[in-house]
Amino acid sequence: MMNKNKIVVPSLIVAGFMIMTALTGSSGCASGREQQRDTFQLVTSPPIPEKLSFAGEAVPLHNFDVKENLDRELMVNSFFHSQTLRYLKLAPRYFAIIEPILKQDSVPDDFKYLALAESGFDPRIISPSGAGGIWQFLKTTGKENGLEVNEEVDERFHIEKATHAACKYLKESHRKYGNWTLVAASYNTGRTNIDKFTDRQQQESYYDLYLVEETNRYVYRILALKMILESPEKYGFFVTDKEKYPVIPYGIVEVRGPVTDLASFAKSHGINYKILKMYNPWLRNSSLKNPLGKSYQIKIPTGEFREY
Fold it and tell me: What is the pTM of this model?
């Protein structure tokens, strides 16, 4: 038995060496690029440009820590294929709403990627901390920025109104900090925390601050999403216009009084309760009491909206 073991073990080693030689080339010095055609899959590092900006402000990619942090988020989002593909397909639908409002309210267009980073294009999302909607407002912050938030109506889930509210908040932060990158970071961690970080560390640049992990990655994630969505083919994503989700046309029905049953209301306008809720996620109940007689604009999709 001992002799057999002594013979078998070297044989396994030799066999393993022969397999490795076949895979890597007889000399072991063949270029990895030359062997691409023989591999199961090709995985490469996402390209990083020489220059990059956020909201018109240069990203200091010459600093190794900045470049490596960006590389991390690029790898995460480049290789999370299903999620990133979904973002690419949904982008036309949501950017068509967000972009004009950012322009109207004089907020840089790059902040549309902040909305994506916050919500993943899910207009009904609620975080564990209770933040809701595309822009992830907390109830108190939403109210402070002019949104109606109660059991029946929650405008944090009204994309247009929430975007205007976000612009208001972002511009207030810009008046305080003077640069958009720090504004983006403060949207994640709050102005109070940013003030503590900048005061204690005597630094004013996001890229020079030692931050908690989530905020440290936050702006880099926004940058990565911007890079991939602006140049998807460069990062291995090929989505045709036909594969993207289009903007579905809709009309507006103005309501000034109570709606006792939203399901019946939907049916009377040629749709169902599900579609009504999809287009108007800010309606949080099955009815709308509207005791003050406010004017609400409810979206009703038009035409053959379910067949595109």
Answer: 0.85
